[in-house]
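Quick review question:
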């Protein structure tokens, strides 16, 4: 049952903050004005739920009404416990203004963005298949024009997207990112280009998304160890993001890698109209899948809170003075699948996690919003 964070309520909670494992409990107190604060310490009775920093989905598609695959930000954000959503390249330099002027103001969820190196973003799903679709100078200018929203550069670097352009879109994306002082988020998938060429171009702070895809040429050995190119990249400080998507998460690949000690840095959905009804559903579902693959709960929470914020350079503690809640997600860990949910990966394998994460409410600047 969802705790009722009503004015005057006091709700005992378990606390999970991966940055401070010494804190394990507290009480959410809501004043008469409806503003919630967290009093750390022994809650005095059995916790009604678990609370921690607000969740971040590092890879989603929320350019609602403009790109054919996008959904409204609140539908995948606050409605499902996600405080901040990163639109991953739905907008390029020529279409960024629509995201800034229309979509973001329409949402209660905070929306940030990875700017696509393709000028028109995902209006065309082969956005980097022709050199005429990329404008380096205009992309740099667009990124610098909205620093509070544009947190990095997105490049989709796989054969179905780049066509005969090969590695060139990534090279140009890296030029834009370095000129603007931003990280890269790079979609990896089927060749060409070869994954080794992609990985060797990336620097510390850049991320590969779809890190556990099962397509030909994925960067993992049968043992679960990374290929030499991926190991070199990880040693340089390149980060791995899940980016489940409709076709980019193989539970067997993920389980082998995690069992071998190679956890993803961040967990994201790549949610859009083609997978929101399954197999993705929401961020909590993807988190449950990684829990099933062997990640400890604290590591799963870190991968949707502190780690994605570090990836995009957000320094925003979740608690302020006197326990003021700046951002938080209230959730439950249960043995029962939500609504009888069927867990399927992107290659059709089904499985049943023993534990399920269910988002209950999101708190932003002390104001709580129950999940849908």
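Suggested answer, residue by residue:
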């Amino acid at each position: 049952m969802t705790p009722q964070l009503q004015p005057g309520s006091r709700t005992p909670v378990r606390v999970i903050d991966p940055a401070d494992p010494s804190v394990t409990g507290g009480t959410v107190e809501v004043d008469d004005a409806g503003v919630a604060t967290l009093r750390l310490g022994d809650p005095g009775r059995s916790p009604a739920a678990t609370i921690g920093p607000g969740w971040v989905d590092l890879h989603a598609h929320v350019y609602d009404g403009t790109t054919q695959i996008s959904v409204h930000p609140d539908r995948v954000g606050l409605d499902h416990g996600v405080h901040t959503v990163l639109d991953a390249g739905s907008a390029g330099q020529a279409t960024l203004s629509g995201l800034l002027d229309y979509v973001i103001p329409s949402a209660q969820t905070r929306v940030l963005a990875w700017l696509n190196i393709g000028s028109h973003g995902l209006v065309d799903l082969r956005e980097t298949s022709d050199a005429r679709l990329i404008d380096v100078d205009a992309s740099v200018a667009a990124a610098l024009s909205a620093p509070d929203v544009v947190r990095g550069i997105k490049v989709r670097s796989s054969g179905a997207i780049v066509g005969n352009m090969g590695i060139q879109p990534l090279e140009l994306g890296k030029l834009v990112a370095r000129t603007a002082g931003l990280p890269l988020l790079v979609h990896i998938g089927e060749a060409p280009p070869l994954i080794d060429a992609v990985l060797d171009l990336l620097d510390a702070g850049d991320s590969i998304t779809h890190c556990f895809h099962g397509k030909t040429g994925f960067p993992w050995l049968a043992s679960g160890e990374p290929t030499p190119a991926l190991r070199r990249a990880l040693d340089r400080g390149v980060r791995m993001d899940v980016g489940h998507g409709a076709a980019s998460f193989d539970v067997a690949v993920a389980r082998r890698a995690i069992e071998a000690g190679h956890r993803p840095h961040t967990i994201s959905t790549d949610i859009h109209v083609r997978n929101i009804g399954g197999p993705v559903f929401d961020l909590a579902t993807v988190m449950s899948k990684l829990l099933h693959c062997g990640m400890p709960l604290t590591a799963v929470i870190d991968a949707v809170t502190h780690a994605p914020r570090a990836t995009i350079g957000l320094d925003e503690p979740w608690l302020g003075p006197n326990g003021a809640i700046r951002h938080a997600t209230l959730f439950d860990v249960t043995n029962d699948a939500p609504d009888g949910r069927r867990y399927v990966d992107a290659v059709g394998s089904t499985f049943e996690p023993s534990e399920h994460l269910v988002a209950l409410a999101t708190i932003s600047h002390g104001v709580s919003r129950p999940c849908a």
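Why it works: Residues 219 and 228 are 9 Å apart (CA to CA). The mean pLDDT is 96.
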